[in-house]
Task: structure prediction
Amino acid sequence: MPITKCPQKSQPLWKEWDQKAQKNGPRHQVYAVNGDRYMGEWKDNMRHGKGTQIWKKKGAIYEGDWKFGKRDGYGTLSLPDQETGKYRRVYSGWWAGDKKSGYGIQFFGPEEYYEGEWCRSQRSGWGRMYYSNGDIYEGQWLNDKHHGEGMLRLKNGNRYEGYWQRGMKNGPGRFFHLDHGQLFEGFWVDSVAKCGTMIDFGRDEAPEPTQFPIPQREY
Result:
């Protein structure tokens, strides 16, 4: 008796093409319709793992970790400098869900940068900000503003230590007028000192001391 075998069903060509088109594992450069390009690892047709993304419109480059199509993990974002044409680092740090999250350093200019904690791409938590005018703020942040306890040291050496809300001095604090050799301790509302006491503090060593010392009260 002759033996017959059932012919195997062939897979439709479109399924074979679709499987080949799926991106998994490391790949060379993959271009988008708008000119953006990505080179790195993929999973289930999404950027996943280590990779580099280049955005054509702004020329921005991100190098780092990806998770299911979003920047997630540690990575560095760079932008082309309009004057030199070279790339300058804008942000280095941690990401979550395509937003800066965790510890990172943001460069706002050649002499202005922030190092500290981020949440949803805003400075939130503890951080230190170096301003281009020479001032330095170190303390707590919330939604990109000084909020909580912190210290602002001015370029001339004077400093404020105390509490902040919405980027302004609010609550108890101390302002050291080291240039004049005085210390003010009091209460602030929206960066305006409402009440407090002023005393001499290092007046003899101050570069520009007041003409007369503050008299001592006798009880």
About this structure: The chain is about 5% helix and 60% strand. The helical segments are 13-21.
